[in-house]
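sry for the spam today, last one i promise. struct tokens for design, 145 residues
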């Protein structure tokens, strides 16, 4: 079994006496009505963090692109790859912003000069560095006059 999962399982079983034995004073433990533990994040949880909240990171970037008359899409594989990279940094959800900013920085600077309107698709290959961000511009829609 995974070492992080083992630690999470042990922490979930903590009782007030364990906390007192660890060194916290009994008066403080008596004033805490609930003991809550946090489990380690997995890839699925990190993908949810990237996409589900109202102000999710992916939604923020999509809004930035909308301001420049462009659409941005992340494939499911790309989201999984971003989450996997965040897990390797071992800093939890904080790594998601750093990794996404590293990925999107060049494209964000190039976006104002790109033909409008545009559609950009971020794939696993782009996240893992096997393809350039220039390939994110899958197709540019042409509008007639």
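last one done:
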């Amino acid at each position: 079994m995974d070492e992080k999962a083992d630690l999470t399982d042990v922490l979930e079983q903590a009782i007030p006496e364990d906390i007192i034995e660890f060194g916290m004073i009994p008066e403080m433990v008596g004033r805490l009505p609930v003991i809550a533990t946090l489990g380690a994040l997995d890839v699925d949880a990190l993908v949810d963090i990237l996409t589900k909240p109202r102000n999710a990171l992916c939604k923020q970037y999509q809004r930035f692109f909308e301001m420049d008359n462009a659409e941005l899409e992340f494939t499911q594989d790309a989201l999984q790859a971003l989450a996997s990279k965040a897990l390797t940094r071992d800093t939890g959800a904080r790594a998601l912003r750093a990794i996404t900013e590293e990925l999107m920085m060049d494209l964000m600077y190039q976006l104002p000069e790109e033909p409008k309107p545009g559609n950009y698709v971020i794939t696993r290959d782009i996240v893992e560095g096997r393809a350039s961000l220039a390939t994110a511009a899958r197709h540019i829609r042409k509008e007639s006059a």
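Residues 29 and 99 are 39 Å apart (CA to CA). ok im logging off now
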